[in-house]
Amino acid sequence: MSAVNPQAPLVISTHDLGRAAGLRKEFSLTVLGPPNFGNAVIGVPEDSSIQLDLRLEAVVDGVLVTAVATLTYQGECARCLDPIEQEAQLEFQELYLYPEAVMLGEDEESFRLKDDLIDLEPALRDAALLDLPLAPICDDDCLGLCSQCGFRLADDPDHEHEQTDARWQALADLFDTKEG
Fold this sequence. Notes:
This protein is mainly β. 12% of the residues lie in helices and 35% in strands. The strands form 2 sheets. Strands 2, 3, 4, 5, 6, 7 and 8 form a 7-stranded mixed β-sheet that branches. A two-stranded antiparallel sheet has the order 1-9. It is elongated, with a radius of gyration of 26 Å. The chain starts with 10 loop residues before the first strand and ends with a helix. The model has no long low-confidence stretch (mean pLDDT 86).
């Protein structure tokens, strides 16, 4: 297990919570968005505010963290490429195991406390990435761009190009020469 930086913005101490099952602590925290928090199309901008409402509960094998994160996604519409901004409220819950706790069926993805510290970034990142739309759109009625010239169809919904089926081009050429 790698060391946890106690100065990192999403690292919180559980020292004052205690280890007796049933102890509880609730608080709010505002942090700046970490780098690379999204995908190529949409994500949480680095250094934007993320509001966290946290509840820490001591349980037998660790600390159960229940969180509500309020954040803003920014990106571009998958149809028209216009910039979009979308508010989101994410809820997630994770059990952070004490270093000495042994859990049946535990996998590599289990979160553990290190020196009474919890690093919330991986859990928050997982929740945010699962919440991100695969193809974000600015509006349900967004018409997108013309597939031939890239014209924004919202500016002129009647925009179109005359298309001739290539299989009929020879016949069209015959009629063009007779008229001339």
